Amino acid sequence: MPGVSSFRSTLFRASRGAPAGLLAGFTALAVAELVAGLVRPAAGPVTVVGGAVIDRTPAAVKDFAIRTFGENDKTVLQLGILVILGLIAVALGVLALSFRRAGAAGVALFGIVGAAAALSRPDSTGVSDALPSIAGAVMGALALYVLAAKATSSPARAGADGDDDAGWNRRGFLAAAGVIAASATVAGALGRFFTARHSRAAVASRETLILPEPASPAPAVPAGVQLKVPGITSFTTPNRDFYRVDTALTVPKVDAGTWRLRIHGRGVTRRTYTLEQLLARPLIERDITLTCVSNEVGGPYIGNARWLGVPLADLLQEAGVRPPSKGGRADQLVARSVDGMTLGSPVEDVMDGRDAMLAVGMNGEPLPFDHGFPVRMLVPGLYGYVSACKWIEDIELTTFDAYDPYWVKRKWARRAPIKTQARIDTPKPFARPAAGTVTVAGVAWAQRRGITRVQIRVDDGPWQDADLAARAGVDTWRQWSYRWAATPGGHNITVRATDGTGRVQTEQRTRTVPDGASGRHSVFVTVP
After folding, report:
1. Which helix (H) or strand (E) holds 486?
2. Low-confidence winner among 14-18, 75-79, 133-137, 358-362 (lowest mean pLDDT)
3. Who contacts 504 (Cβ-Cβ below 8 Å, separation ≥6)?
């Protein structure tokens, strides 16, 4: 039957082409990883292509990814890239059985795409960043050409030694595939070894770093800031639990010994600092709550830590910077990280007396790599995307009219003070608490203004005042609790906060774009 024969022939070709393509793709990625390990790990093709995808993704899609996948959004992106590459590799493998050069050229084309993406990255160091993608593509194309040749060549003796007579040399194909797979595996292992060697100095520099005592220690945390309520968020967020939202597919590992910070721009005497020079300065220690602009109402992207750092205003004043209100020429501070990220902060806010700092310590230890080691910037009261530059290496004084940082180019607001918010931590949504007294509890925040009141409403009833925990300061969140006399049935519990200016948290619901979510958090529970 011609139809059945044709279908079987197609399946037979796919059974040879698919593994040939996948093996060629594996070879390309392994060789690229090896060369990236020798040149610069951040120039690997998956990393640079993933970064290019992130840069070109609309803000609403990024917001969806963070909302849906949380801190695993980058892992999902990388897996998605690998799956797509795998499917393309299968298609090229099947194509190469009929058109070897076309299949190999397809692999080479992806090398060109990777090289272009590498050279377009803001942290690109030059032409050498294109080498991993190019080398990987060349070896991948060669591997596919060889495998396709073996898969379409007839054995020396048709039907002998287990080979069939359908025009392919199974033993030759398997032998070639084995050699190529082994070689690619070795290349990949060497790539990981060299990549680890790149970060070894950075890891050692963090492990041996001894943080000085602060000249201005954090005020003692008052008794009663932590309520004894099961399920409520801890006042101090452990480093391992602190949220991470950024665009870095691979966390930069920066050697503290070679790190430098440059300050330059309008009305500035250019200065450069080493970490050792910063640590020799008087340091401040403060409890500060950071909030991500991607945090939905009731979301998890907020955390409180004890930070140690250099007062940023002092460094700027020494460089000749004045805020606009005092005649300064710059109204925007642009912070740049080692991976090319740019964040813009109002100079007026940075220099208005708040504890803006270049942080070097977090909860009593050097900054973790995930959170910006060796130095990150933070400005209390501003969302992270306009203040909290991790892995900072450059500060430029400019104007909002002259330069749009990364997120502003993607339709986020230039200025973004943190909005007043409250969150219910317990009971959880759709919980089934028993009838009787149920403790409703959570946290509220309004950095720079503080929280003076939290109220709870059950269903359509009146607003009732919650009990507030002790206040640690205007730059930290504040815990609250309310003893609710729960009755059987389904109930909607809503919370709202009032900040230190007397302004009540708005009920108007907005999404995170362009300057942070607003609205009131509520949970639905059923009392049996």
Report:
1. strand 478-486
2. 14-18
3. 496, 497, 498
